[in-house]
């Protein structure tokens, strides 16, 4: 049995550190800083950017953009970008989450994205996300953002016994998202008993001040945030599985994990950028800008201030170009036409129990390498030129590559690719590593495809400038 590749173990660590988009950005930020990337603020000027240096910025702490400027870069040169997303389908707490019925304390949640919600039943769940905390400092008050994650399982969405739903075997599980997706936090009787026991201890100051959420839940969150419950001003929390990601299968050939879509591509692109720019002279001959953009809200259409539908990427390209030459406003348009985007989002692998869901000539398989996604109706932004460039990089390094189109009698999903291609005007190829159980609380992919993806992305960063100089279109 082959040993697990370091890149695979590193991905598992990344997944386990990233229960939410906020945590994924925080982990990416930590890795970038360790690799010598300097943090920028979108609120400040970027006048001091230098060739050969590396930078990043965050937006809403759920989107992150990192870039390395080639030592030979001049304003108007191209950007070589990999775009992915940090969010995954999940259950998010409602603004008023306090639900009490039938002797239970429950937590109201809303569905985010197109999840396979039946997979969330009977799982050991917890909460994670960010809280806004009021702090007293130097005689005044400030408000800080903190990430929290309750480690132990505190929630569960129990299924109904088959004896009370005799049609489930013949008609399947029919989930009403409003009525059935309500996790149990505690029983009312235990909660009341705990209050009596604690009467002589600290008072639950949040009880009367915040009636939106169960005081018990606020206490658990406050403990993680190292604050008092009544210092919590607001939060964005979601449910997540407590079972860790793992290398699994009889031959240790799979990764079993939540959020592979799309933290797998986020990780591989981030690691490729870091490693392709880490050597002392790695940017000496680079005339472009290598960039990774990891966006929030892809699962719900990307229409937000931090989604791919926002001006975030165009703003970054404009500010980088302008920091090197602010006198020529046409250089940005020139740079965009010299740029290239790899839209990296996980792909649907052939399922052995549902072979008819793929057509015969387009059946991406696990271990088969990255999948180039095609759609004549522009649900994917790939064309012959962009597919060739990405495929040529694979052939140069003997990396496997696959193709996918959806069946003509099935609807096709989409990605950030068409959004950025149309919004920015950048050449784009849509690709992704193959996986099974997409949008389940527990997904799976192949360890070989992690190595293939990382190597392919790293080669793209290192070789695109030279390869693109040989591609002649629009001459």
From TrEMBL:
It comes from the Eukaryota. Keywords: Aminopeptidase, Hydrolase, Metal-binding, Metalloprotease, Protease, Zinc. GO terms for molecular function: aminopeptidase activity; metal ion binding; metallopeptidase activity. Belongs to the peptidase M18 family. GO terms for biological process: proteolysis. SUPFAM superfamilies: Aminopeptidase/glucanase lid domain (SSF101821), Zn-dependent exopeptidases (SSF53187). Its cofactor is Zn(2+). GO terms for cellular component: cytoplasm. It holds the Pfam family Peptidase_M18. It comes from Urochloa decumbens. InterPro entries: Peptidase_M18 (IPR001948), Peptidase_M18_dom2 (IPR023358). This is Aspartyl aminopeptidase. The keyword Repressor does not apply.
């Amino acid at each position: 049995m082959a040993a697990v590749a370091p890149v695979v173990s590193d991905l598992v660590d990344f997944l386990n550190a990233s229960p939410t988009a906020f945590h994924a950005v925080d982990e990416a930020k930590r890795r970038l800083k360790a690799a010598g990337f300097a943090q920028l603020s979108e609120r400040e000027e970027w006048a001091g950017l230098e060739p050969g240096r590396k930078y990043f910025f965050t937006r809403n702490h759920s989107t992150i953009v990192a870039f390395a400027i080639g030592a030979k870069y001049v304003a108007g040169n191209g950007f070589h970008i990999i775009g992915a997303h940090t969010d995954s389908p999940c259950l998010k707490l409602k603004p008023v989450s306090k639900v009490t019925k039938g002797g239970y304390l429950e937590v109201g949640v809303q569905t985010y994205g197109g999840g396979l919600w039946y997979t969330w039943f009977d799982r050991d769940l917890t909460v994670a996300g960010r809280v806004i905390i009021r702090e007293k400092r130097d005689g005044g008050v400030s408000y800080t953002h903190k990430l929290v994650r309750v480690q132990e399982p505190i929630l569960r969405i129990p299924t109904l016994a088959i004896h009370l739903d005799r049609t489930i075997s013949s008609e399947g599980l029919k989930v009403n998202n409003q009525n059935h997706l309500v996790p149990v936090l505690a029983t009312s009787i235990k909660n009341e008993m705990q209050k009596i026991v604690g009467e002589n201890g600290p008072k639950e100051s949040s009880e009367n001040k915040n009636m939106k959420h169960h005081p018990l839940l606020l206490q658990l969150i406050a403990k993680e945030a190292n604050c008092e419950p009544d210092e919590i001003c607001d939060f964005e929390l979601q449910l997540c599985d407590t079972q860790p990601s793992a290398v699994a299968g009889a031959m240790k050939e799979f990764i079993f994990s939540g959020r592979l879509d799309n933290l797998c591509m986020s990780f591989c692109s981030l690691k490729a950028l870091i490693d392709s720019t880490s050597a002392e002279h790695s940017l000496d001959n680079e005339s472009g800008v290598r960039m990774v953009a990891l966006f929030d809200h892809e699962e719900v259409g990307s229409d937000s201030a931090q989604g791919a539908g926002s001006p975030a990427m165009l703003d970054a390209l404009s500010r980088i170009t302008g920091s090197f030459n602010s006198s020529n406003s046409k250089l940005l348009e020139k740079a965009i036409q010299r740029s290239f985007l790899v839209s990296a989002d996980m792909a649907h692998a052939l399922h052995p129990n549902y072979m008819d869901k793929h057509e015969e000539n387009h059946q991406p398989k696990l271990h088969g390498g990255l999948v180039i996604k095609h759609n004549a109706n522009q649900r994917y932004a790939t064309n012959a030129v962009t597919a060739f460039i990405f495929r040529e990089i694979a052939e140069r390094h003997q990396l496997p590559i696959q193709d996918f189109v959806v069946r003509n009698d099935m609807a096709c999903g989409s990605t950030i690719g068409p959004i950025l291609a149309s919004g920015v005007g950048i050449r784009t190829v849509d690709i992704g590593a193959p996986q099974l159980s997409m949008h389940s609380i527990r997904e799976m992919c192949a360890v070989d495809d992690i190595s293939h993806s990382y190597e392919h992305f790293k080669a793209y960063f290192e070789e695109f400038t030279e390869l693109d100089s040989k591609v002649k279109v629009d001459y």
